[in-house]
Specification:
alpha/beta; 7-stranded parallel β-sheet
Amino acid sequence: MKKVLLINSNTEVLPYPVAPLGLSLVANSLAGTYQVKVIDFAFSSTNSLLKDIKNYKPDYIGVSIRNIDNVTMRKSKWYIEELKQLIIDPIKVTFEGPVIIGGSGFSIAPAEILNYLNVDYGIIGEAENIFCDLLKELDTNSIPKSIEGLVLKNQKEIKPRIFKEGKLEVKSSNIDQLIDFKPYAERGSYPIQAKRGCIHKCIYCSYPNIEGNTYRLRNVTDIVNEIEEVSKRMPNIVFEFVDSIFNSPLNHAVNICDEIIKRNLRVNLRTMGVNPGEVTDDLIRLMKQAGFAQIDCTPDSASAGMLKSYRKNFNLEKLIECAYIIRKYDMPTMWFFMMGAPKETEETIKETFDFIDEFIFEEDMVHITEGIRIIPKTELFEIALKESVISKFQNVIEPMFYVDPKLGKENLTRILEQEIGKRNNVLNSIDTRPTKELMQRTIKYRTKNNINEPMFRSLLKVQNLLQV
C-alpha cells in the first residue's frame, strides 16, 4: 500500500489555533486505499518535518493552505513566503515524488499560488474525492488532465468548479485521532461542519467561489452523531460550527438545535457567522437551550446605505431586531464590522458606532476591520480595478486592501482611532490579541472565581478593572 503524507501548513496559533478540518477529511477519504500520516506544522518545525519524510518515506505529499495572509491592512502578514521557505522548498530538497497543494487559501488564487510555489498539482475547493482520483492516475504514471478542480503547473485556463445543490456526504472527521489535539482542546475548539456553499452575494466574499453559491446540507443526524461521539472521548471540549454562516438556511440550524436538545446532550457550543437576516427569536432560544455559549454576529456595517453597498440580505431594521433578540436571551456575542468599503464615509462610520452604543451589550466584544481585503473573482475586485485602487498587473496573491478613495486610508485610520478610543469593548482587528499580562490575569481571575463564561467577556472585565 502506497504512503501519503498530509501537512497542515497553517502556523498561525493566535488568538487560538484552528484545527485542520479539511485535511482530516481528506485523510479519511484516503484511508483503506493508501497509508496516511498527518503532520500538524502549527506545532512542528522544518527539521522535524524532514525527519518525518525521511523515516516515513511517502510516495505522495499533500499540503493544505488555509490562509494566504492575516487579512489585516496595517499589520499585514503574508503567509505564502513563509510556507515556501519553511515547508515547500525544504520538501523539494529531500523528496522527489509529487507534491499536491490545496485548501481554502490556495483556492482563492490557484494558478498564481501553484506557480509561485513551483509545485506540480493543486486542487480547488474540497479535495476528498479529487485527491484520491489524482493519486489513482499518478499510480499508473499517467498525466492527469480531465479531473474537475485539478490545476496543473503553468495551466493557462482554469475553469471554476461547479457545485450542485444537494446533500453533503460527510461523516465524522475524527480529527482528534489524526493529530495531537491537546493544544486545540486547551485553547481552541473541535470543528464541526454542517454544510458547504453560500447563496448570499456579499461583494467581498470568497466563499461562493470556494464552496459554490448553492447549499449542500449535511445530514442533521450525522452532525449530532459526531458531536455526541466526540463528547464521549472529550467530555469538556468546545465544539465550533465552522460554516461561513451557521443560520442560513434557517431551518437547517433549527433542526440541528432540535436534535441536540432531543438527545439531551450536555455540550458546549459556539459558532462563527451568524447572519442577522436569518436571526429569529426561536433560533436564539433554541441555540441557548442546545448549549451555545457564544456566537459571532457578522453584520459588517450598521449603516443602512452600507448594508446596500455590501449587498447584504438584510436591512437596518432587521439588524436592530437581531440585536434585541440577542440581548433578550443574553447570548454572549462577538460582533464583527468592516470599515472602508465602497461608499463608506465618516457619516456611515458614525452610524455604525451609534448602533454599537445603543444596541450592543458593553459585556460583548466588537471587532472592527480597517480596510477590506480584495480577493480575486469578487465584485469588490472589479470595483477596485475600475477605480484604479489596484492594477490588472498586480500580483493577486499578495495582500491587497480597499478603502473608498474619497474616504482615504489615513482618514479612516484617524476616525477609527478616535472612535475606538472612546469605547472599552471595541477593538481594531490589529489589536485583538491580548497581552501576555492581560491573559495571565484573566486566567487567574477565572480560576479564582470559578468563571465559566466566554473568555472574551472575562478579558473585558479584567481589562476594565486594570483601567480603574
